[in-house]
Design a protein that fits this description.
The chain contains 2 helices and 7 strands; from the N terminus they run βββαββαββ. It is mainly β and 100 residues long. The longest helix has 7 residues, at 67-73. Strands 1, 2, 3, 4, 5, 6 and 7 form a 7-stranded mixed beta sheet that branches. The protein has helices at residues 38-43, 67-73; strands at residues 2-6, 16-22, 25-32, 50-54, 57-58, 75-82, 85-93.
Length: 100
């Protein structure tokens, strides 16, 4: 399991995540436009990876990521489908500086 420290806001830097559907049902988020993104390289996320679970919660139609809980724990775990291979990645989250 890869562990790295990230700023939660940096997760969106240089990339975006496209809802991925099968039979009109949400089944994950595709990583898009990560080429050349240092953050995505450090997180080991690649274009076309599909995030299928966040903190053990499957990404389905009623998925809502509890960012407050993730920040309180100081950790984020992603389950990724990369061309049919399932990968688990755990990251340490840096708390935003006081006053932000």
């Amino acid at each position: 399991m890869l562990k790295g420290e990230i700023d939660p806001e940096a997760l969106l830097e240089g990339s975006w995540f496209l809802p991925n559907q099968e039979d009109r049902q949400l089944v994950g988020f595709r990583v898009m436009v990560a080429h050349g993104s240092e953050v995505m390289r450090r997180l080991d996320l690649r274009v076309r990876d599909r995030i299928v679970a966040v903190d053990g919660v499957p990404v389905t139609g009623d998925f809502v990521w509890d960012t407050e809980a993730a920040l309180a724990r100081g950790r984020l775990t992603l389950t990724i489908d990369r061309a049919g291979t399932t990968l688990e990645r755990e990251y340490v989250l840096r708390a935003p500086p006081a006053g932000e």
